[in-house]
Write a structure and sequence with these properties.
- By secondary structure, the protein is an alpha/beta fold.
- The chain folds into three domains: 267 residues, Rossmann fold; 34 residues, no CATH class; 158 residues, IlvD/EDD C-terminal domain-like (Glucose Oxidase, domain 1, 3-Layer(bba) Sandwich), CATH 3.50.30.
- Helices cover 34% and strands 12% of the residues.
- The chain is globular and about 75 Å long.
- The two termini are 43 Å apart.
- It binds FE2/S2 (inorganic) cluster and magnesium ion.
- The site of magnesium ion has 7 residues, from loops.
Length: 578
Amino acid sequence: MSSDDIPAARPLRSREWFAGNDLNAFIHRSWMKNQGIPDRMFDGRPVIGICNTWSELTPCNAHFRDLAEQVKLGIIEAGGFPVEFPVTSLGETIIRPTTMLYRNLVSMDVEESIRANPIDGVVLLCGCDKTTPALLMGAASCDLPTLVVSGGPMLNGRHEGRTIGSGTSVFAMSEAVRSGEMSECAFRAAESATSRSPGHCNTMGTASTMASVTEALGLALPGNAAIPAVDSRRRVHARDSGVRIVEMVTEDLRMSDVVTRESFENAIRVNAAIGGSTNAVVHLLALAGRLEIPLELQDFAQQSRNIPLLVNLMPSGSYLMEDFYYAGGLPAVIAELGDLLHTDALTVTGRTLGENVTGAPIWDDDVIRRRASPLQEDAGITVLTGNLAPNGAVVKPSAASRHLLRHVGRAVVFRGMDDFRARIDSPDLDIEPDDVIVLTGAGPVGAPGMPEVGNLPLPRRLLARGVTDMVRISDARMSGTAFGTVVLHVAPEAAVGGPLALVRDGDRIELDVPGGVLRLEVDDDELRRRREAFVPTADVPAGGYRRLFVDHVLQADRGVDFDFLVGKRGTAVAGDNH
Ligand code: FES
Ligand code: MG
């Protein structure tokens, strides 16, 4: 770039608060000074917000006060003025009924917090599942220079000589207890071994997926996805990010300068190569909506075509995030994918995705496979359509059973999770291994909030017979750490009258994953009769946030965002407050 090409620096929005000598400038500076901030910090240096999702109720993010301190050191080192602020945190394991009910609420918290305050650039501290998309979505609607620092995964779990991974092993052990193979005592002992250090889930669940996808979008410094939370290099990474965000403000490198349609295509392809979570689908669709970048559900099918599964991590494979880091982490995957990506896409480093990973080696090619010997040739999330899902559904073949990818079976229908829990283990339930378990009423409106219940537990009676997987179909989501032949995100959902609501016990359902088909073998006349007789059963919340949610939530194929939150709204500075 010649000096003629460098755009004139934009005036910093923080000057609207901190410059001048009038009543308001006095108020803005003076009260900040009660924290011990010296006068020189108000001299016009960039003010960097550190958006923190620390909470003791979000154990995956409980180490974020330390992480924020590291970011601050970097910001100060680079001549910036750090200001840390909290937003609502979302702890995946604790919050009921589901964190997804609150992702959009947090995104509003983030967006309004950034816009209302003297912030010139922002570092997003993300970890547990929803904290990443919520913060990205809110920041996207503001579109300031934005950089993500993830908290990093927990260390590998080890128990009774075996490696155990967050979620994935819990689901497997829980089924082992139900089938009588594992004692409740051993199950209880595995708890402490599963989560033995700070950090988020150590499998390629939603947290690791979203951290990887963020790196692929170009929104984090290289290496962000995999450095373990407790590794000293995670602190260095945070500090480096603090330095870089100050430079980004000086360069006026905004989120929309970094993230383009090509970045989303990269993110989808990387998600395929890592065996990433189905949750990435709704989160990426919502983020694209905020950035006003066209992206559709079918893009996930098209963009992941011919992308090999390279990363051998649970739930699709064997290893965990700690192994992934030692094997080279996401830079090695990006380098190995090479020409399968848009390597010329810009990133927050100011360089391209390809430049960031030049020469990044694979240290262990069982953990990160080479393209010549992938775990699976054609990976990624498959999009299904058909009369049962006119607007689409998703399935993750790498986490499914091969013999069920083409399957026709008899429907056994459950209307909501209460119905499911009440009947699934009943000796009277007529259910066989070839049947298809259907759950309705678990979508964005129906639950509400689209909980992660799609990987429904199998009937105890069939588990005892050695059955390990069955086709399951719902309008719910599932944990990124889960596995099985599980069809999710059926749109439109049952609660708004989607065809899923019309399925009855004994109907035959065809699943054809290679063909992308999900079909209810019931003729159109009969379906029309059932539709005319359909009465919505979901309770409409009387008021409060839940009412706002069901009134405005978009369906899964549109990312489950609120209709009124789609788009960028900028960061114009509002009038003085006094
Ligand atoms: Fe927080 Fe899995 S529960 S990342
Ligand atoms: Mg999860």
